[in-house]
Automatic annotation (TrEMBL):
Transmembrane found in the keyword field: yes
Domain Mechanosensitive ion channel MscS: 655-721
Tree of life domain: Bacteria
Keywords from the UniProt entry: Cell membrane, Membrane, Signal, Transmembrane, Transmembrane helix
Organism: Anaeromyxobacter oryzae
Region of interest called Disordered, as start-end residue ranges on this chain: 836-859
Taxonomic path: Bacteria, Pseudomonadati, Myxococcota, Myxococcia, Myxococcales
Membrane topology: Multi-pass membrane protein
Keyword DNA damage among UniProt keywords: no
Pfam family, one: MS_channel_3rd
Location within or outside the cell: Cell membrane
Protein name: MscS Mechanosensitive ion channel
Cleaved signal peptide residues: 1-32
Amino acid sequence: MPKRATRARGTTGDLRLALVATALLAAGAARGAGTGAVPSPLAGAREAPEKIDVKPPAVPSPQPIPVEHVFRAADDLAAPLRAAEAAAGPDPAVEEVERRLEEAARASQVLRARLDAQRLGDTSAREIERLRQGLAREDLFLADGQLVLEKRAERVATAERQIEDRLASWQLTAEAARGEQAPPAVLRRVAQVEESLRAAEARLRTEGDRLLGIQGRVSEVRAGLSLVARSVEEADAALQRQLFEVESAPLWRALSGPNRTGALGGQLRQALRENGRDLADFLAEEQERLFLHLAIFVALALGLLALRRPVAAMGAEGAALRGAAQVLSRPWSAALLLSLPLAGGLYPLLPPSLRDLLFLVFLAPLLRVLPGLMPDLFRRPLYGLVALFALDKLASIAPPRTLLARLTLLLVTVGALAGLVRGLRRGGWARFLRAGAWRVATRSAAVGAAALLAVSAVSNVVGNVTLAERLTHATLASATLAAVLLGVDIVLEGALAALLRVPALQRRPLVARHRALLERRIAGLLRAAAVALWAWRTAKGLGVAAAFSGALKAVLGVRLHVGGLDVSLGNVVAFAVTLAVSLALSKAIRFVLDEGVFSELRLPRGIPAAVSTTVQYGLVLLGFSWAVLASGMEMSRFSFLLGALGLGIGFGLQNVVNNFVSGLILLYERPIQVRDIVEVGTIAGEVTRIGVRSSTVRTFTGAEVIVPNATLISDAVTNWTLSDRRRRIDLGVGVAYGTAPQQVIDLLLAVVRGRAGVLDDPAPVALFLRFGESSMEFALRFWTADFDRWVLLASEVMVEVHASLGRAGIQIPFPQRDLHVRSLAPAAAEALAAARMRRGDGSARAPSEPPSPEATPPG
């Protein structure tokens, strides 16, 4: 046995042994907690039917290296030793974790001392949000650092195990070499290798212990941050309780109180230092995301610049593109207006001061783009709103509940209230809110904002500063957010209108045929998203989002008991919403496939319809499955429903199932396809739809007939356009006896040869069919590839045949009959004779004399 097997493993081995023992104890405790008692070790043995001997996997034991291979094996150790050296060497990521760990530890101590020293209710809402964001940012970084440390520790542990295995092998090699009395050069080389491996092992063990120590400190700091976060939540709860409490002196007493300008100046300097520190930390930590944000802004600006020329060339559509032209006239401002809202996604833990700064920067492009797209009466209120919002955000830097902060808040509140009252009176700017689909909602929102501002002003005067700050900040933020979302929506709709009119997209069938529909649907989605975002942010700013969410959860948690079925209202809503979304998504995807993808691909007829229908039904089925899972129902509850459905299929739903299976056959076998011309019994027309249960045939007279799919499968169906849309046209014509047949054949072929719509292959054919009773009968047969126009083409050819025969002097006879009169009344005979004399047919004959064939009247 090597010496390594008997010596102590050091602190790393002890720590690993302790972790294994802790895991085993935790597993036993969890098992005991699950059963209600701690099981006896012998209980499992008595209950087991047989003993199963589970052996750990065999690990190959180290083997000594033969003496003749020592030098080559020693040379091969260079790479493992370098890898061990790299694993035990310095790591910039670990050093960054250590640096941030010390900063987080100091910040945790400072924050804990600060929150313990002051009363929780004295913390402002802005300070609470700033602390919450800072704690979340530090905890997120430490959590990522914990992962970095774990990966680094695993790498070090793996390298240490490899070095230990090699050291054991070389120890055996040293013993074997001494026993074999190897040459001194071999013994020296073995001793050198052992020394190098022991040094590498020691470095790796030291690095592993250091990493474990850092992990322990990270856990301690995160625990301290969690305590600070709990104190912050307590401060937030105390602040919420102060909403309806008078926590400050009335404003008239504060004005007559002692002046504390010096203390206020120190507080302002402290607030500015904290905001500057937040900005510096943000710029240092988010450099990559800042560059990504800048790249997005430049890309958007270049894209808008590229759209300027196509839109400028469409001057005839100025009314439709007025918004697009206004947006594209200021591409950099429009790009800034589109890129700044991405800050919420790029920087999820943005400090409040930087968020306000970005919002203020956001207002500059808004004022450049939005005024040109609204009536002149709205421009002055927009400028006033932006000015009040900027003043409110700049004043929020001042310490809360000071006289300066209260006076500034009152000024902002009164200014906003005056602007709203002026707009809501007769003839004010709010009269434009009475038009449009959102007139009731916008008018109600304006009235509600005025009421909230009035309550805020009164609360500030009487001393309830917390409520005043909440109402004023939330109202101004809501109004400004509405203006911002309006500007973003206008920019997006203008860019969309310009993009859909680019010639490259106009050549696409989807855009060429459905441009107006795409604009309308996408604009509707953008507006709905803007309204939803505005409503959520407004509720969150007013502090009612949590209450509304709780009330909604309570309503959705109502249980519905119907027989053996026990579901909640939330399950029903989740099922309905998921199913509705899946249906809408399936229809949209099928629309894109049919109109945008398959229309540009050359596929066999029927394949696009089969693929799009399959995709739609697959998405519906998948959506239904998701809806069932979202509802929280167990699939076992559908056993009764499936049994009832099977019984119904066996008795009353045979026709439905028959039609459904027939629909699948029509879809995949494709004997009948959409746009085919078919005859089913007495029905003839074009197939316009193939559904799951039935298909629709539009007759040539305009009627739409619903035909069950089983009829199309089981009955005889004539499909005129199954393989192609060619049609043979047969025209019959009779000429008078005495006409040369070959002349007629040549005339008929001359009419159709070279005519547009007539195919050369198969070639047209003119045939002499028979000798008729009154004429010689011919037939003209030719093919056309345009089935939809074969009736018009046949009519045109018949007109030309009639004209050609007329020009050639060939008569088209009509049927003739000889009428033999056996007896005739004298009066009638005289009248007939007089009629003959008037027509000049010759002398009158005797009534009993039969007329000659030449004198027989037609018909």
